[in-house]
UniProtKB/TrEMBL annotation:
Organism from which the protein derives: Brassica carinata (Ethiopian mustard)
Pfam families: Cyclin_N
Record's keyword annotation contains Cell division: yes
Domain named Cyclin-like: residues: 40-139
Designated name of the protein: Cyclin-like domain-containing protein
SMART domains per the UniProt record, alphabetical: CYCLIN (SM00385)
Organism lineage string: Eukaryota, Viridiplantae, Streptophyta, Embryophyta, Tracheophyta
GO biological-process terms attached to the record: cell division; regulation of transcription by RNA polymerase II
Amino acid sequence: MFPGEDRWYFSREEIDNNSPSRRDGIDLTEETRLRKAYCSFLKDLGRRFKLHQATVATAMVFCHRFFLCQSHAKNDKWIIAAVCMFLSAKVESTPVDLKTLIITSEEILHKKVIAAEQRQGVYEHYKGLVSNGEKLVLSTLNFDLSVDLPFDILIQAMKKFILDEATQGKFPSAAWKFVQDSFWTTLCLQYQPRHIAAGAFFLAAMHIKMDVKSHGESWCQHFDITLHQLNGAKWVSSIMGKSVLLPLLEA
């Protein structure tokens, strides 16, 4: 499975049923668990390095893209995730030191502090694996490190539509959480950033009980998305467990 004209966007059926991991006997439930595991690891790495959430999100996208083309059965997810963070930090102009990245990764995985006298040995042990992993990730991604994120789109919409003081206190954190949750899934491989931003916006509005019905059409116009597309986006059910947008909008 390789990106075509639309690069990294595929149907959920393609991702769920035709991944290299599936061909190697890893079922969807297990692959979903593995994806969440490396996302949790990347979140911890980002926290330790005080990286911007865009850097963490880009690393997650790199990982999802990699395992769209490569099998979990044949690759160490921790090495690949560390490499993806290393590359993402470069792309987002927040570079991290390779030695520190390796040491920090080991500390997170083993939940203990590595003594100063052991750090050089740990670095020497893993630097070759990380170097080879970087080559594999770059070749697998076809050196395509361009990632569009939904954050700016969401911010623009909030500035335009969320005007009253009461809503401003609740809406941003809810919308932000929905967007962040999306990166723990393969939604970034299924939907364009503006679709994910739109979904997060509507879900946040519903969460704080805004008048979705009255404003839905103008919101959709801003995101350049139709109500039908919004309701058909399976990522709504992926996060909330059910698709509820269109019935509310059309009530």
